[in-house]
Each structure stands twice: as structure tokens, then as C-alpha cells.
Design goal:
The protein is of the alpha/beta class. Helix content is 24%, strand content 18%. Helix 6 runs antiparallel to helix 9.
């Protein structure tokens, strides 16, 4: 029988893609297209969903060759086992094996030291490998709809410091180990519809725990059972901490002395709750979103059809309230942006961030793709140069760096330069004076460079992968900006503005086309204002607006978003 040939694989090979998505059953049966492994050197995202059987994957050694994979989705494929070669995927961040028929996970998962998300819901798991405790970066663990009788003591005792979400609903868990308090970063815990009869008091010692779902369990403490069905998380934790403690001790009926003590305790707790609530409100990060209709004079971005085959996706917004004057605030912000490029942006291969001083941006803006030989830009810290020459120069610098470090593998700089290989046109963001202010994924322009005196930022995120990647990166960037702003304001660092910057600031004038809001808050505040920016096509039809209602829906309790 001839080997199956999947059109998705053929297209990925032809275009040298770094991601491959195959969904739905194959007419050829459950065999893998053998050409899949030819993508191994470059492939960073692989999704095989609903490809029933996947007989060619189980027990296959081919998967271990895909060393560049950052995310692997094998959901709804009817898998009964996973190959141990999974442990060789040292760069893997996300593993989704939900909705299969797995009875166990391979111990080799413990070798995935970069793994941050493991989704294994909807299987037949009866145990978890103890080696999973070695995944020190694990932040999200989904285990719902399995057959687990308990959460392994080794997993709890490991104190996975970054684990923030643990979901194990609809299992057979009868006991929650005392080691749960070692999960110091835990924010969300879902143990609904299990067989729990008690909850250890140590659960209240998880310092960041904000959301618990314990519904559907039969507790000995009937008062606790009522609370988990109708009370907020804080009330449940207070009850565990102050008296209930999940050991069947509720309020003793007919005991007037205990009644009196209970009422006094509640009254004191209510006062403490009010004080704590006020303190939490003060410590929260505040993001205020202004819609385009509330700020109609803001900048608009027009997209030409030329970017379709080069780098088609872009989202933008305006940020006000970022405190950059004080101390090392600007440096911290630039370092944070670099870290986001290395992490969530996959060294700029998934998406690229560019930040501009809004007062130096002359709108309206045009997102276009222009011939590489004629496109010119003045990069940050460099003189004006042709885009093709800049790429060539950066390639030489990267090669030299690799040789000096005696590295055989491709450097991070090489990786995002490869996105432009074979492209006759390069993507660019152009202002009203036809000046290129951004050349993604390479650099943005010296003309709109942010300084300590910058009070309003124009932020863009572009991608050749998909629009959702742009939005997720922008969400992460804004959240990080809010955290940095809060740190700067709370530490009250001394303002440090150089004489040159002060002189430049005094000479800045407002561009009529843009009509920039000049109101700057005098008193330092950590509140950030996020203004929507519309991206339209050449005919003025809306393509995307950010942030929309579905954006910035951060599941983080320390953030207040005002819309």
C-alpha cells in the first residue's frame, strides 16, 4: 500500500513552514505521512487533531527528531500510548494530549524542563509519573476527566513554584495530600466532582490561591459542603484557616457559647476583610481601556494587499501613563521587551514587538510590503540603509558571533532573519511623510525611538503566523508594562532626564493629522490607559481593532480592567 500523502505536509514543505496543522480524519487511514519528519529541523508547532488512530506515531522513534518543537497538539487522535521519545523534545513548552485513550504518561516527560503547559484531560489516566515533578517551569496542568485516585505526593512535595492552574475535575480523587501547600504559585484549583470527604487545612496556606472549585464532593463537614456550593473562595479559605479545617468540625448546634464566639469571630473577620479588600484595591494593577469612539482623533493604520504573502498580521494600540522618567524605568522596560521577544515571541519567529514615541509618529500610517532593493530605513542606533543591505549586514554579524562562540546551531538572530529569505518585498510601517518607522521583524526607526521623556507610546505587534499570536503577545506586553509601572511608582525613584532630552521634549510639536492628547498626569500613578487603534484595508473596511471586548481578558486577580 502506498504511503499516504497529506496536502498540509506538502504545502508546509513547499513553503518551508515552521508550523503544521492537520485536523480531521484522513481518507488514507491512520498512517502518518512519512514526509512529516522532513520538516523536523524547522518545525516549531505541530498539531494533529482528530486524526483517528495515528498508528504511525505510537511507538515511533521519528517524533524524537523534531527537536525544534515548541508546541505539540495531539488531541482527539485515539492514542493509547505516547512514545518515550517525547522526552527528547527539549524545547517543548506546550503538550496537549487531551481526549485520547491514554492510561499512562511516559516517565520521559520529566526531561521536558521547558514545559509550561500540559493538557491531558479526557483520557483514562490512573496515575501520573513521579518524574513530572522535574518540570520546574510547569504553570498549567489539566487532568480533568480521567481515573486518578489521588494527586501524587511527589508532585505536590516538589513545590512546582510556577504552577498556577491545576485542574483535576471528574476523577476519583479521595484524598488531597497535605503537600498541597507547597504549591506556592497556585492560583486556580479545580477538584470538582471527585470523592473528597475532607480538605486539609494546609490548603489555606497557598498564598496566591484565588479560585477553588470543590463542588460535587461529599464532605463530612456539612457546613463546608454548603460553603463550596455557594461561597466565594476567600470565605472557604478563611473557614479552613479559622475553624472548619475540613475535618468535620462545623458549628455545634445548641452550644450557645460556641455560637457567641462564632459571631464574634465573623464580626472581626468582616472588619479584617474590609481592610484587606481596601489594601488589595490599592495594590491592584489598573488598566483603563478607551474605545475608538471615545478617542476618535487617534492614529489609524491602513493595510495594503501587498503584505498578504509576506507578513499579513498586525495589531496596534496606544499606551498612556507609562512612567519612564524615574531611575532605571526605561531600561527595565526595554529589557522586559527583549525578554518577551525571546520567550512568548519565540525569538521573534512567532511575532515581533515595536514601540514608538507617539508624539514623533506622523499619521495616518500605512502597513505595506515594498521591494527589498528600494526600501530604506534608519534603524535604531544606525545610519539610513537599504533594507536588503541591513539584513545582509545582520546576517554577517550573526555568522561572526556564531563562529566566535564556536556554535554549530542556528542562533536566535539567524532564526528571525530566515523569515525574510526568498522574499522580494519586505514588510514595513510607513508614516504620513513616507518614512519607514518600522521594519518587522528586524527593527524600528531611530526617528520614533522612545526616551525617558516619552509620555505616550504607539505599540505594534506583527506576525506572519496568525492574528491571535499578535493579540496574545500584546496582552502579555501590556500586562508586563502595568507591572513595571506599578513597581516604578511604588519605589518612587528620582526622575533622571538629561539636558538633551529635556530640550528635545520642549521642541516637540503636535502633528495636526494625529491630534495627540497633551494631558499628562502630574501626580505619579500606576494606572495605564490603553487606547484602541483601528487597522483597516485600503477601502477603509475594518480588519481588526485592539483591544476589542475579547482582548485583555486576563485571568489575573491583581489586575482591574475598566472598560
Amino acid at each position: 500500500m502506498a504511503a499516504p500523502e497529506w496536502p498540509e505536509v506538502e504545502l508546509a514543505l513547499a513553503e518551508g513552514r515552521r508550523e503544521l496543522v492537520v485536523r480531521g480524519p484522513r481518507p488514507e487511514g491512520d498512517e502518518l505521512d512519512p514526509r512529516l519528519y522532513e520538516l523536523a529541523p524547522l518545525l516549531q508547532h505541530l498539531e494533529l487533531s482528530g486524526v483517528a488512530g495515528l498508528r504511525g506515531l505510537e511507538g515511533s522513534g521519528g517524533l524524537g527528531r523534531m527537536r525544534a518543537l515548541r508546541s505539540l497538539v495531539l488531541s482527539g487522535d485515539g492514542l493509547r500510548t505516547l512514545p518515550p521519545e517525547l522526552g527528547q523534545l527539549s524545547e517543548l513548552r506546550l503538550l496537549d494530549v487531551s481526549d485520547n485513550r491514554l492510561s499512562a504518561l511516559p516517565a520521559s516527560l520529566g526531561s521536558l524542563t521547558q514545559l509550561s503547559s500540559l493538557k491531558a484531560s479526557g483520557n483514562q489516566l490512573e496515575a501520573l509519573p513521579a518524574e513530572l515533578a522535574n518540570c520546574s517551569r510547569l504553570a498549567l496542568l489539566h487532568l480533568s476527566d480521567n481515573l486518578l485516585p489521588e494527586l501524587p505526593a511527589a508532585l505536590l512535595a516538589s513545590g512546582l513554584m510556577l504552577l498556577s492552574t491545576l485542574s483535576a475535575a471528574r476523577n476519583r480523587i479521595e484524598r488531597l495530600g497535605d503537600g498541597i501547600s507547597e504549591l506556592r504559585g497556585l492560583r486556580t484549583l479545580d477538584l470538582s466532582d471527585n470523592f473528597l470527604s475532607e480538605i486539609p487545612c494546609e490548603l489555606a496556606d497557598c498564598p496566591k490561591l484565588k479560585e477553588i472549585n470543590l463542588k460535587g464532593n461529599k464532605f463530612k463537614d456539612k457546613r463546608l459542603e454548603k460553603m463550596v456550593n455557594g461561597c466565594q473562595t476567600k470565605s472557604i479559605l478563611d473557614y479552613l484557616k479559622a475553624g472548619g479545617r475540613g475535618k468535620g468540625r462545623g458549628k455545634t448546634e445548641g452550644n450557645e457559647k460556641n455560637e457567641s464566639k462564632e459571631k464574634a469571630r465573623k464580626k472581626a473577620m468582616k472588619r479584617d476583610d474590609a481592610d484587606e479588600s481596601d489594601e488589595e484595591d490599592l495594590n491592584k494593577l489598573v488598566l483603563r481601556v478607551l474605545r475608538f469612539s471615545e478617542n476618535p482623533c487617534t492614529v489609524q493604520v491602513k493595510v495594503t494587499p501587498n503584505v498578504k504573502d509576506v507578513r499579513p498580521y498586525i495589531v496596534c494600540c496606544i499606551i498612556e501613563g507609562m512612567q519612564l522618567r524615574q531611575g532605571n524605568a526605561l531600561k527595565r522596560f526595554l529589557v522586559a521587551q527583549t525578554k518577551l521577544h525571546d520567550d512568548i515571541c519565540l525569538k521573534r519567529t512567532l511575532a515581533t514587538i515595536a514601540t514608538h514615541d507617539l508624539q514623533l509618529v506622523k499619521g495616518p500610517l500605512l502597513y505595506d510590503a515594498r521591494p527589498s532593493q528600494s526600501l530604506k530605513i534608519t534603524p535604531l542606533g544606525r545610519k539610513e540603509v537599504k533594507a536588503v543591505d541591513l539584513v545582509r549586514q545582520l546576517q554577517m554579524e550573526a555568522d561572526e558571533q556564531r563562529k566566535q562562540k564556536k556554535r554549530q546551531n542556528v542562533s536566535g538572530l539567524h532564526k528571525y532573519l530566515q523569515l525574510l529569505n526568498g522574499k522580494e518585498n519586505f514588510p514595513c510601517l510607513v508614516d504620513a511623510e513616507d518614512c519607514v518607522i518600522s521594519f518587522p521583524p528586524i527593527t524600528n526607526c531611530e526617528k520614533t525611538k522612545i526616551k525617558k521623556t516619552t509620555s505616550q507610546l504607539f505599540v505594534e505587534v506583527t506576525s506572519s503566523a496568525n492574528l491571535q499570536a499578535c493579540k496574545e503577545v500584546m496582552d502579555s506586553l501590556i500586562m508586563r508594562m502595568a507591572e513595571l509601572n506599578k513597581f516604578t511608582v511604588e519605589n518612587q525613584e528620582q526622575e533622571t532626564v538629561s539636558g538633551d532630552e529635556a530640550e528635545e521634549a520642549s521642541e516637540i510639536t503636535v502633528v495636526p493629522d494625529l491630534v495627540v492628547d497633551q494631558t499628562v498626569t502630574q501626580a505619579a500613578t500606576s494606572e495605564l490607559i490603553v487606547k484602541q487603534v483601528r487597522v483597516v484595508d485600503v477601502d477603509g473596511n475594518l480588519k481588526v481593532v485592539y483591544p476589542a471586548k475579547t482582548d485583555l481578558n486576563l485571568n489575573v486577580d491583581c489586575v482591574t480592567i475598566i472598560r
